[in-house]
Each structure stands twice: as C-alpha cells, then as structure tokens.
Amino acid sequence: MTGATDRDLADAANRLAVALLAGEWTLSSAESSTAGLIGHAITMVPGASRYYVGGVIAYSNLAKVLELGVPEDMIANHGAVSAEVADAMAEGVRSRFDTDLAVAVTGIAGPDADGSGKPVGLHFVAACRRGHPATVERHVFTRDREGNKAEAALAALELALREIDAG
C-alpha cells in the first residue's frame, strides 16, 4: 500500500514555492528517513534555487551529530526517532544554512523496526522559523516503506506551509 503520490508531493511543493517566494523566505531541509525525498520534491519546481538553499541527508546518528549538531546525549536519551531529535535537526540545518525556515524528518520507514520498541511508520516532522521555536508533529504512517517515506515528506511540506502562514 503506497502513501502520498508524486502528484501530492508536486502539488505541495508548488504551493510551498508560491508561499516562499511571496514572503521572500529561504528554506533548508534535514532528512533522515526520507533520505532526500523532500529536497527532491522541492527542486522539481522550476526556480527552486531562488528560495531553497540546500539540505542535509543525515541518515545515521553520526551524521545527525556531525552535520546538524544534534547532541549525542539527546540521541542516547530519546532515540534518533524522537521529537527532541527532529527539533534539533530543524534548528541545526536552519542555523547552518542561515535560512528563514527549515524542515526536518526522522522516522522508521519500515518494513523492520529499529529495535527501540517504537512502531514502524513512526515519524517526527519539525519546522523551524528564524527566531521561533520549532514546531514538531508526531505521525504514525501505516503504509509500506515507500509510502511511509512519501507521507513523511508530504507532512514536512505541509508543515512548512503552515509555518509560513503563522509567520
């Protein structure tokens, strides 16, 4: 069973492009479980270089620590798939790329669990605006691996849109 479609991602990315350009905002992304799907969706929109600065695929815990500044003890205490880590990922990429807005995703795409006792499909999606604390959402998707990744990417794009509306 698949989740969000390519069309869903394209539609959200197009709406996000319009909102970012209207507000003259810049965007960055930090991805773990989605492994670049958010950046891919964003850059499918022509002219994305006007607002999308870049992203980090921090698939491993080491990458989260080294590339995004996520504290090792945070990962040890809460797990890589946690609200705290998603928040730190968003804050880290926003700060490193000096963007107005950042999104981050960490989760368990499946089909296997990660040994933590957390369910397959669990994802934390975060968005961070300059000067504001991150907003973090918890989702449990019930699709296959590809579907869970697509649903998480769509959730991140939609959260970014809501953050722009709030700003």
Summarize the structure.
This protein is of the alpha/beta class and 167 residues long.
Overall description:
- The chain is α/β, with parallel strands linked by helices.
- It has one domain (6-166): Maf protein, CATH 3.90.950.20.
- It is 46% helix and 19% strand.
- It contains 6 helices and 5 strands; from the N terminus they run αβαβαααβββα.
- It has helices spanning 6-23, 37-43, 61-68, 72-78, 83-97, 145-166; strands spanning 27-31, 52-57, 101-107, 122-129, 135-140.
- A 5-stranded mixed β-sheet has the order 2-1-3-4-5, sandwiched between helices.
- α2 links the parallel β1 (27-31) and β2 (52-57).
- The longest helix has 22 residues, at 145-166.
- The chain starts with 5 loop residues before the first helix and ends with a helix.
- The mean pLDDT is 96.
Number of helices: 6
Number of domains: 1
Strand content: 15-25%
Number of strands: 5
The CATH topology, please?
A: Maf protein
**Computed Rg:** 14 Å
Helix content: 40-55%
- Written as H for each helix and E for each strand, in order along the chain, the element string is HEHEHHHEEEH
Shape: globular
* Low-pLDDT segments, ≥5 res: none
Q: Spell out the CATH superfamily.
A: CinA-like
> What value does the average pLDDT take?
96
Return the CATH architecture: Alpha-Beta Complex
Oligomer: single chain
Largest sheet report: 5 strands, mixed
